[in-house]
Amino acid sequence: MAPELRVVGKPLPRVDAYGKVTGKTVYAADFTLPGMLFGKVLRGTEPHARIVRIDARRALTLPGVRAVISAADVADVRYGGALKDETVFAREKVRYVGQPVAAVAAATSEAAEAALAAIDVVYDPLPAVFDVEGALAPGAPLVHEAWETYSAIPILYREGNICNRARILAGDVERGLAEADRVFEHRFTTRMVHQGYTEPRAAVAAWDSAGQVTVWSNTQLPFEVQNTLAEILQLPPSRIRILVPGIGGGFGGKLRVGVEHFAALLARKTGRPVRVITTSEEELTAAYPRQGTIVELKTGVTRDGRLTGKQGRIFFDTGAFAGSGPGVASVATLILAGPYCIPNLHLEGYAVYTNKTNCGSFRAPSGPQANFAVESQMDIIADALGMDPLDLRLRNIVREGDEGPTGQLLTGVGLEECLRRAADAIGWNDRRPGPSRGKGIACGWWTTTGGSSGVYVKINPDGTVALNTGAAEIGTGALTGAAQVLAEQLSVELSDINLVSADTYSTPFDFGAQGSRTAFSVGNACRAAAADLRRQLFALASRQLGVEPDALELRERHVVAGGKRVSLADLSRLSQQSGGGLIAHGTFIAPPTPYDTKRVEAHVYPAFHSPSFHAHAVDLAVDPETGEVTLHRYVVAQDVGFALNPTYVEGQIEGGVAQGVGQALSEEIVYENGRVVNPNLTDYKMPTTLDLPRIESILVQHPSAVGPYGAKGVGEPPNIEPPAAVANAVAAAIGVRITSLPITAEKIVMALRKETP
Amino acid sequence: MSFEYHEPPSVSEAVALAARFGSEARFLAGGTDLIVQINRGKLAPRHVVSLHRVPGLDTIAVDGHVTLGALVTHRALERSPHFQGRYRGLVEGAQVVGGHQVRNVGTVGGNIVNASPAADVVPVLLALDAAVTCLGPEGERTLPLEEFLVGPGQTQRRPEELLTTVRFPLLGPNSATAFLKAGRRKAMEISVVCVAARMTLDAGLERCREARIALGAVAPTTLRARAAEHVLEGEVPRAELLRRAGALAARACQPISDVRASSQFRRLLVETLVPRVLARCLERIREEGR
Ligand SMILES: Cc1cc2nc3c(=O)[nH]c(=O)nc-3n(C[C@H](O)[C@H](O)[C@H](O)COP(=O)(O)OP(=O)(O)OC[C@H]3O[C@@H](n4cnc5c(N)ncnc54)[C@H](O)[C@@H]3O)c2cc1C
Questions:
Q1: Which has the closest alpha carbon to B200: B127, B117, B121, B110?
Q2: Which residue of A has its CA nearest to B273?
Q3: What is the CATH class of B60-169?
Q4: Which of A626, A683, A689 is the closest to B260 by Cβ?
Q5: Which residues have C-beta within 8 Å of that of residue A66, sequence separation ≥ 6?
Q6: B162, B140 in Cβ contact below 8 A?
Q7: What is the pLDDT of residue A204?
Q8: Which among A154, A175, A492, B121 is placed 20 to 30 Å from B44, CA to CA?
Q9: Per-residue pLDDT tens over the stretch A584-636
Q10: Helices (H) and strands (E) in chain A, counts
C-alpha cells in the first residue's frame, strides 16, 4: 500500500508567499545599483523603411546623456530561436513600427527621454505588408529579402514571407471528406493580444573589472538569455551571469531576450550599471504578443456525428521576425486536430512575416486561436446535425489507449470525465435557461513541455533542506509544487525547504519557466535528488544505528529503524565532519514521446508529452440591443493528473480563464497601416474583476505515468478554451455566431442586425 | 516631465498663482486626468497648482439649490445621502468612473474642466441644468454648464480661473434622474456612449412636464438632445414615444469612429440607451409616487 501523503496534494501556502504579500520581494523593476544610469530605446517610426541616416550628435550634447548606441556599435549577429533573423538594432532597414533603432543611457530617465527626442533618424519608406493575406499575395514585398541566408534549424519549410509551414498528414483526407455525409467549411480570425503581465520587462546590467557582466532580469529563461547575450556580446556564456529576482508575471512574454541586451550594451559602453524598463506603450507595440491568426477548416462528418476527415490551415501573423512563430505554427496543427479521433487529416500551420511587431509565445501558444476555430466549428456541426454539442464531442473524443493525430499513444486520458463533469456542473440539460441567455462548452488538450532540469539539494546541519534550481518562480507557485515533492520525499515539512533559484553562475541548468513544465520537471529532478540523498542518509544511518540500510526508512525528519532513530540534522553534521556534507544532484528529462515520423513535415513539436485534457463550460447572458455580455458562471474541469497543490492549481485555472476571457471578449492590439492605435492600457482592454464571475474549478486526476505523483502540466491549459466556450455560449444565447475574436459588443449587435461592422 | 509644484493654502492664493503663471499653470485636483496627460506628453505645464490644501471646496450643500464644491470626489457623490432618491443618476454616473482608486481621488471639478466628451458625471449635471461658477482675479462668474463646455478638453474657463462650485436647482416631486453607460468592460472603462436623463411628470403621473436628455461620447462635447426632449414634453411617455426620443437623440449626435467603436454603433447605442434611461426615470418616479 502506498504511504499516505503528507505534503504533496495539500493546499499549503506557497514558499514565496510571505515576501510577496508583505511587499518585501524585490522584483527586477525594483532593483537598483549605486551609480546606475537609465537606458531607453529609440524605436522605429515606419513599418518598413530604409534608414538613410541616424544622427545622435545633438543628443550626446544634452545634459546627463552618457551614451548613444545603434547598429554600428554592436556586432553584426542575428539571433533567434528556430530561425536566427533578429538583430539588436535595425540595420539598414526598419521592419516594424517599434523596432529598436538606437539606445541611450543617461543620468535620469527624463534625460534619456530627451536624448531619444534629439536623435535624428531619416527614413526612406518602402512598401510594407500589414497582414497575412498581403504577405502571401503574389509579388508581395519581402519582409526579409535575404531570408535564404539566415540560419535556421534544418527541418523548417521556408519560402519568402513564410518562415515555416508545418504539416500533419494522416490517412487520406480526400477519402475522409468523400466518406462524409456533410462537409463543413469555415473561416475564423483572431487578433494579436498581449500577455498583460503586471511588471514590464526590466533588466539591470553591470560589468566588473574582469570583463564579466551580471544582469538582473525578470526573464523566464535565464539560461536562454545567457546564451543569447553570449551571441550578441560575442562572449563565452560563462562571462555572463543572469540572476532573476522576483518576476511580476510572464505568461511567455519574458522568454526571449527583452531589454537585457540593451542594458548590457549600454553598461559596457558607459562603464556604469544601466537599467532598462519598458513602458506600457513599448509593451503594446514592441513586445512578444500572441499572434493574430486566420484559420480555415474543412471537416467531414457522418450523419450520426462521426468525424471522418479534416483539412485545416492556420496562418500566424508572426510579425517582422519569426520569434516563436515556426514552433507555434507546428504546435497549432495538434490543436487543429483537436482531442478527437479523426482518421484522415491534412493540417497546416503557417508562420508568416509581416511588418508588425515580433510575436512570441503566450501561455499555450497557438492554443486559444486554433481551439476557438475547432470548437466553434464543432458546435456549428452539432447544430446542423441536430445533435447536442456535448454528444457530438463525446462521440469523437480521444480515450485511453487511442492514437493522437501524429500516432502517439494516449494514456491517462481524462477527457470524457472532464466533459461530463463540466457539463453537469453548468447544468447542461438546460442550455438556454432564459431569453438571450446561453451555455457553451469547449474542450481541448495540451502538452507538458519537455526540456531538462537539474537541481542540487543539500541537507543543512539543522535538518532543513536547500533546494537549488535554475528555474525561476514566475508566480505560478510551480517551485512550491516542486518543493512539496522534495519535502514529501525527504520526510520533511514544506517549511523546511529553502529555495535558491535562477542564477546562471551557481544554480544547475533548467530549461526554464515555460510550457507548463516547471513543477513537473523540477519536481521530478527533486525526486531523483531525494533518492540519491536517501541512499547517502541510509549509508550513514546504517553505520550509526547498526542496522542494514534496507531496514531503514525516512520518517518525520529522521531515519528510522524500528525503535531506533537518528535525525537528518545529526546525519548532516556527521557528514560534514566525515564526508563533505549531504548533497545530491538530481536531474530529469522527459522521455521522448514516440510518434509516427511519416505523418509530419517541418514540424518542431510533433507530439504532446504527458498531455492534459480539459473542458470549459460557461453560462452567460447577452444584451441583444447593446451587445453587452455578462458571464454568470464559469466552470473548468481540468485533468491535471495529480494536483501537487490544489490551491495553486485552482489559481492557475482562475488566472488562465480571466486571461482567456480577455481574448474572448475585449482584448486586441489594433493595427492600422502598421501602427498600433491602442498602445495604452486605456484602450487595450483586459478584463477586470467585475467582468468575471467566480471561476469554479473541478480537478480531474488521471495520472501521467511520468510526472511527479502523476502530475501533468497545469499552467497553460486554462487559457486555451475560454474563447471557444464563450463563442459557443454567445451563439446559444442569441442564435448568432461570431467567428472573429474578440467578440465585442459591437460585433454582436452588428451581427444581430445582419450587418458587418 | 518637470514642473514647479505649488500648494496654496486658500482659494485666493490659488487664483493669484494662476493669474501669475497664466496658461503655463494647471490646477491639480485628483490628478487622475492631469497626471496621465502629463505622463503621456499631451500636456507640459511649467507650474502645477495643487488644490489639496485649499479648504472649503469639498462640500455638498443642499438648500435652495444643490451646490457641489469642485473638489467633491466621485466617491463622495456616490456615498452622499442626498443623492440616493431623485438624484440617483448622479450616483450612477459617479459610481462607474474608473475604479475605486480613481473615484477616491477624482473630482467633479476635474471631470468638468477636463471636458472629455466621454466624462460620466457631466451628462448627469447637464440633465440637472447645472451651472458652474469660476473665480478669477476679476471676481466670480457663473455660466450654464452647457455653455461652459466648448470642445474636447476645451471650456470657457480662462487659465487664471478656478472652478469653485457646480450648482443645480432642487428637483420637485414627480422627478427622477438616471444614467447608463456602455463600454467594452464593466469597470475602468471610458464610455463608448453614456446617457443621462431627467424627467418630471405632472401631478397625475401621466404626462411628461419636463425632460432632459444628455449624451456622452457622441459629439465634441457632452450634448443635450433637445429634439428628443421636446418630443416628450407634454406627452404621455409610452414605450413607443421613448423609442422615438431614442431615434431623435441618435439623429442629434455626431459620433466619431475610433478604436473603441464605430460611429454607427455609437448611434445605435444612443438609440437603445435613451429609451432605457427614460424608462428608468419613469420607474423611479412611479416608485416614489407609490
Ligand atoms: C484609470 C482611470 C479611469 C478613469 N475612468 C473614468 C470614467 O470611467 N469616467 C470618467 O468620466 N472619467 C474617468 N477618468 C478620468 C478622471 O478620473 C475624471 O475625469 C476625474 O473626474 C478627473 O478629476 P481629477 O480631480 O482627478 O482631475 P485632475 O486630473 O486633477 O484635473 C483635470 C483637469 O481639470 C483641471 N482642474 C481640476 N480641478 C479644477 C478646478 N477646480 N478649477 C479649474 N481647473 C481644474 C486640471 O487643471 C486638469 O486640467 C478616469 C481616469 C483614470 C486615470
A1: B127
A2: A626
A3: alpha beta
A4: A683
A5: A37, A105, A106, A107, A269, A270, A272
A6: no
A7: 98
A8: B121
A9: 999 999 999 999 999 999 999 999 999 999 999 999 999 999 999 999 999 99
A10: 18, 32
Measuring CA to CA, which residue among B66, B189, B241, B31 is closest to residue A666? B189
Q: Measure Cα distances from A358 to A40, A124, A354, A741 in Å.
A: 19, 21, 9, 20
- CA-nearest residue for atom 41, ligand 1, is B163
SS3 A678: coil
Nearest to B199 by CA among B101, B120, B276, B100: B276
pLDDT at B288 over 90: no
Residue B163 CA to ligand 1 center (angstroms) comes to 13
> What DSSP string runs through A427-486?
TTT-S--BTTEEEEEEEEEE-----EEEEEEEE-TTS-EEEEES----SSSHHHHHHHHH
What is the C-alpha separation between A47 and A34, in angstroms, rounded?
38
Read off the pLDDT of residues B76-111 as tens digits, 9 standing for 90 and up: 999 999 999 999 999 999 999 999 999 999 999 999
Q: How confident is the model at residue A362, as a pLDDT?
A: 98
> How does the average pLDDT of chain A come out, rounded?
97
Nearest CA to ligand 1 atom 9: B97
Name all residues whose Cβ lies below 6 A of ligand 1.
B 26-34, 36, 70, 96-98, 102, 106-107, 109-111, 113-114, 119-120, 162-163, 188-190
Task: Compare CB distances from A670 to B259, B261, B264 and report the shortest one's residue.
Answer: B259
Residues of chain A where predicted confidence (pLDDT) is lower than 70: 1-2, 755-757
| CATH ID of A31-126+201-277, from 3.40.50.300, 3.90.1170.50, 3.40.50.12780, 1.10.510.10 | 3.90.1170.50
In angstroms, rounded to a whole number, what is the distance separating the alpha carbons of residues B253 and B117?
12
